[in-house]
Amino acid sequence: MDESNHWYGHSRILARYCGLPDDVPRRIQGFVQHGWNYLHGYPPNDHWCTPGYPRFIWADVLRRRGWSMGRRGHYLIGAPWIYLLALEPDLGLVPEEEREGTIWYPFHGWEKNAVIGDHGRLAAYIREVESGPVTVCLYWLEFANIGIRGAYESAGFRVICHGSRGSRWDDTGRDFLRRQLTELRRHRRVASNRLGSALFYGASVGCDIAVYGDPMQFEGERPEYGGTARRMRLWPELHGEHVDRGLAAEAALRELGFDYQATPEELQRMFGWKRVRCA
After folding, report:
1. Nearest to 118 by CA among 228, 232, 241, 217
2. Which of 3, 171, 191, 208 has its CA 20 to 30 A from that of 51?
3. CB atoms < 10 A from the CB of 91, how many?
């Protein structure tokens, strides 16, 4: 229904999990949470989701926050990431002893909001902290920016991009998460200057995580999120140059909603992909 359902190949992954062809993105009757956040799973503005349609969210804490703000119609299904892991248990898998280095995800903007921050200074900080090889993964907008990309390349880092997030109208994002999974499984650590989806994805496949450096800011960042102070207050144990692996793995299971993984039958009924027969 909404284009965001198709970002990062989510609707295709969910269709494959249901045993359906993924050659064309399927219309989902509702809104699938497309990324981790610490509000209620969606942007603060109410016009993002049409009233009356279900919201398919990752974790129970988001349902509770949504209810506290008067939002209803939440269905817990877990993150599309967990369905990809079920479909691709061996994709990119390498022996533990062959994993090396850190993959670093700088906080990024999007088409309607740029991020304010000094990438050159962040690159220098990363160089001080990381002892092994570093891969910096940029969002496609920052990757296309020669100045930003050059700040990390000049520091000697391998710089990559998983691609654009795609849309319903093209298939550029269909393999985004597959590429991300392959990269995460070859690295020992995943780090960022803000807690986000990539860190929980990495922790779920055995990476150590780290959160350090200037968190940067969106232009006109919405106050409802609570900013860095709220992230530090809610997840102090997940911030720092070195984070306990057990705590990170536990947080990933909770935030990605592994306990709420639905069956193919359940997803098809919730998404409107299978008609319910009346007795």
Report:
1. 217
2. 171
3. 15
Which CATH architecture describes the domain 96-255?
Answer: 3-Layer(aba) Sandwich (3.40)
- Given a cut of 90, whether residue 57 has pLDDT beyond it is yes
Report how far apart, in Å, the C-alpha atoms of 139 and of each of 117, 142, 151, 174, 180 are: 15, 6, 14, 15, 12
Q: Which residues pair with 160 in a beta bridge?
A: 137
* Total number of residues shown for the chain: 279
- Band of the pLDDT at 279, cuts 50, 70, 90? very low
The count of C-alpha atoms lying within 13 angstroms of the C-alpha of 43, restricted to the half-sphere facing its C-beta, is 9
Rounded to an integer, what distance in angstroms lies between the CA atom of residue 201 and that of residue 205? Answer: 7
pLDDT of 224 > 70? The answer is no
- Own/partner pairs, 39-43, CB within 8 angstroms, 24+ separation: 39/65, 39/224, 39/225, 40/65, 40/66, 40/69, 40/71, 41/66, 43/222
Closest C-alpha among 59, 63, 81, 79 to residue 71:
63
pLDDT of residue 278: 47
CA 270: distance to chain centroid?
A: 22
Please, which residues have CB within 8 angstroms of residue 5's CB and are 6 or more apart in sequence? Answer: 11, 25, 28, 31, 32, 34, 168
Please give the Cα distance from 109 to 75 (Å, whole number).
Answer: 28
User: What span, in angstroms and rounded, lies between the C-alpha atoms of 181 and 84?
Assistant: 9
